[in-house]
């Protein structure tokens, strides 16, 4: 840089001034001790409003036309050198900071603690989450609804006729005052209706939750129990989709390689309806391995009810039943957990004794 431009001589764009500005910037960058320092140096020397090179660029327009090209090139070279030096220093200081954080924030995972076991997760919660995960992995969303439900959601919209026996006080717990139409939901199926009313189609939801019936507690009955159900409504859904979904579900619940079968059944909200049976995971239906306490020598375990969503249910939710179809599947969580873990008494699940839950608590 030995040919000073007369018009620029002495100004911020002459070679000597630029060289001095670059040298000063490089020295400041090298001297920055940490990222905070570097941010200040950047403002003062690289691209801050008062940086010498930024001020020099503002003078470019005032140079005589014939001098602008050379001055612009010199300025760009200078800016490039300073920016490169800043990037290099930034990388160095960031690496130093990261290395320091690793040392300073290290946690000694071998330190002994005196943590006491607070309890255990409830086996139904553990099972429910595991099954929900299976559906979420297939693209389903989790849906929930209230446990105190309106008769319309619990029965009417699900195609239960007004005189259906399930709607009697024999089976259903009504909420006072009488006549408000409020019930403790007898199944998780009202969540299906809520999902269809509130979500855009297609709908793929899995609904776990607590449900209630007017039952007295004994070894196999409880007035409160857990259910889990899934609902898929889309264009072109068939029974084959239901079957495929249930195979994945059965493998997650009882293990792989087990045959499933559908037995004709009846539910008000599905048509056709079926019971899902899964081959007994204990004896696999082989008489040589029986007597079998899991399936009482049936060779099959009843795993839940399912079917194609009745068009009346779709219509109740305002859906065009000529265009959309769907399937639903529901199951009792206690029953599945009893089968899976050989639990004899359903009341163990509601007693709240932590000694019952502890052996299940670590299962994820
Ligand atoms: Zn068996």
From TrEMBL:
It is found in: Cytoplasm. Residues 127-359 form the Aminoacyl-transfer RNA synthetases class-II family profile domain. Binds 2 magnesium ions per tetramer. Its main location: cytoplasm. The keyword 4Fe-4S does not apply. Gene3D superfamilies: Bira Bifunctional Protein, Domain 2 (3.30.930.10). The keyword tRNA processing does not apply. SUPFAM superfamilies: Class II aaRS and biotin synthetases, tRNA-binding arm. One of its GO terms (molecular function) is phenylalanine-tRNA ligase activity. It catalyses: tRNA(Phe) + L-phenylalanine + ATP = L-phenylalanyl-tRNA(Phe) + AMP + diphosphate + H(+). Its EC number is 6.1.1.20. Pfam families: Phe_tRNA-synt_N, tRNA-synt_2d. Keywords: Aminoacyl-tRNA synthetase, ATP-binding, Cytoplasm, Ligase, Magnesium, Metal-binding, Nucleotide-binding, Protein biosynthesis. Belongs to the class-II aminoacyl-tRNA synthetase family. Phe-tRNA synthetase alpha subunit type 1 subfamily. This is Phenylalanine--tRNA ligase alpha subunit. The lineage of its organism: Bacteria, Bacillati, Actinomycetota, Actinomycetes, Frankiales. The gene is pheS.
């Amino acid at each position: 840089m030995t040919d000073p431009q007369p018009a620029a001589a002495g100004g911020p764009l002459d070679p000597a001034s630029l060289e001095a500005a670059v040298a000063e910037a490089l020295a400041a960058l090298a001297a920055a001790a940490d990222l905070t320092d570097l941010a200040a140096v950047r403002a003062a020397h690289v691209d801050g409003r008062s940086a010498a090179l930024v001020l020099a660029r503002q003078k470019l327009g005032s140079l005589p036309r014939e001098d602008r090209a050379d001055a612009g090139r010199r300025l760009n070279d200078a800016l490039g050198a300073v920016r490169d030096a800043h990037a290099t220093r930034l990388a160095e200081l960031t690496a130093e900071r990261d290395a320091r954080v690793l040392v300073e924030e290290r946690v000694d995972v071998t330190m002994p603690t005196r943590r006491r076991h607070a309890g255990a997760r409830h086996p139904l919660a553990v099972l429910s989450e595991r099954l929900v995960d299976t559906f979420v992995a297939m693209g389903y969303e989790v849906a929930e609804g209230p446990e105190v439900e309106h008769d319309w959601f619990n029965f009417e919209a699900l195609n239960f006729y007004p005189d259906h026996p399930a709607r009697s006080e024999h089976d259903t717990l009504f909420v006072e005052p009488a006549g408000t139409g409020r019930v403790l939901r007898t199944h998780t199926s009202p969540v299906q209706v809520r999902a269809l009313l509130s979500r855009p189609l297609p709908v793929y939801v899995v609904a776990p939750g607590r449900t209630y019936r007017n039952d007295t507690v004994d070894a196999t009955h409880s007035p409160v129990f857990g259910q889990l159900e899934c609902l898929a409504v889309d264009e072109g859904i068939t029974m084959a989709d239901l079957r495929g979904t249930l195979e994945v579900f059965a493998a997650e619940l009882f293990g792989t390689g087990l045959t499933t079968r559908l037995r004709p059944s009846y539910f008000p909200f599905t048509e056709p309806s079926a019971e899902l049976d899964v081959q007994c995971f204990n004896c696999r239906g082989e008489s040589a391995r029986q007597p079998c306490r899991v399936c009482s020598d049936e060779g099959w375990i009843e795993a839940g009810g399912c079917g194609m969503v009745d068009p009346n249910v779709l219509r109740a939710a305002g859906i065009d039943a000529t265009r959309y179809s769907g399937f639903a599947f529901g199951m009792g969580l206690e029953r599945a957990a009893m089968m899976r873990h050989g639990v004899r008494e359903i009341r163990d699940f509601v007693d709240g004794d932590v000694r019952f839950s502890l052996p299940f608590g670590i299962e994820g």
